[in-house]
Design brief:
Length: 339
């Protein structure tokens, strides 16, 4: 039996389950210290695998399409933060200050890699360009996101600690493992490519571990006493508004700039999405532990909304016939039957 389009995927259900477990059985005391050490190791492993999985050949193949990549990067790292700031009068009545900090953090994150490429392929977009744009966004986000957090988030009531301390943590926990993975790709790349399905569980397990530790700390600080059902409904509306604005602006801009239909699809999917896989570990590194739960909650919700909406769009656009396909079909229909 086919899975319903709008039913959350297994990973999203696991995220929800992790939040529920952390809400009722949060780690405390010595267990919390141990879990924090394990989480730091898991984050390093996660970015090591990201580095080892990133194919330099695929990046080079799509790197020449610089106009498309520039539009995607500007959408990811300029449009989203500007939207988060410009919509503040609309957003702040709907959510708490801590959740608004999470929304601003969401706006500074890089694009997704796997799902952006998958949706671009489903919708018959420019896949090589999507590989390049999404991968470049993920790599540049290691540097750009902490800088944007320092500019955008810290000016709106959030404490992120010393900028130099943040840079040091990002370098040690994210960048060093990522570079190590890239350097070792010639030796382990083929093994990584053969075992992608198995390594997906390492990726997802690392994220679930970070979520459990973050929400345990948040529960210990009383997060569910400060967030009501009305606030959660407001957060849902905020995420829908933010995604709708990003989809509309990227689609309008790509069309006005004269990109082909395949390139427009790539810009829309790569320029409107945010990475949960990068965002949650980054939040753990950048923010104080007691604030991480509220900071990542908007991202977790946005993640599911973007997957559901983009899945519907990709299937709808993928079902349309491109001009070459229509021309071939018309030629085949008009051709005289062979005897």
């Amino acid at each position: 039996m086919a899975r319903p389009k709008l039913l959350p995927d297994n990973f999203t259900l696991a995220l929800v389950g992790t939040v529920i477990v952390a809400s009722f059985l949060p780690c405390r005391g010595g267990a919390a210290v141990a879990f924090n050490w394990i989480t730091d190791i898991a984050i390093g492993l996660l970015f090591f695998l990201h580095g080892a999985k990133l194919s330099r050949e695929a990046i080079i193949a799509g790197a020449t399409h610089w106009r498309l990549h520039l539009v995607v990067l500007l959408s990811t790292f300029a449009l989203f933060p500007l939207l988060g700031l410009a919509l503040k009068p609309v957003l702040t009545p709907l959510v708490t200050p801590a959740l608004y900090t999470g929304i601003l953090f969401l706006c500074t994150l890089p694009s997704t890699v796997q799902s952006s490429i998958a949706f671009t392929s489903m919708a018959k977009g420019n896949v090589p360009a999507a590989v390049c744009s999404a991968s470049a966004s993920s790599l540049l986000g290691i540097f750009i996101t902490p800088a944007l957090v320092g500019i955008v988030v810290s000016n709106h009531g959030a404490t992120t600690g010393s900028p130099w301390h943040t840079v040091g943590n990002i370098t040690l926990q994210l960048l060093v493992p990522f570079i190590a993975g890239q350097l070792l790709r010639p030796a382990i790349g083929k093994w990584i490519d053969r075992h992608r399905a198995m390594l997906k569980f390492v990726d997802q397990g690392s994220i679930l571990l970070v979520v459990y530790v973050a929400f345990s700390e948040a529960v210990n600080e009383g997060i569910w006493h400060s967030i009501s059902l009305g606030t959660l409904a407001g957060l849902l509306a905020v995420n829908i508004l933010l995604l709708a604005a990003a989809l509309f602006i990227t689609a309008f801009t790509a069309k006005r700039l004269g990109f082909s239909r395949a390139d427009q699809i790539t810009i829309i999917f790569c320029g409107s999405k945010k990475s949960l896989a990068s965002g949650i570990p980054m939040a753990k590194v950048i923010f104080a532990s007691h604030a991480v739960g509220a900071v990542v909650l908007p991202l977790m919700l946005f993640h599911q909304i973007q997957l559901m909406v983009c899945a519907v769009l990709a299937q709808r656009w993928g079902a349309r016939k491109t001009a070459p396909e229509a021309a071939r079909e018309n030629k085949a229909v008009g051709a005289p039957a062979r005897r």
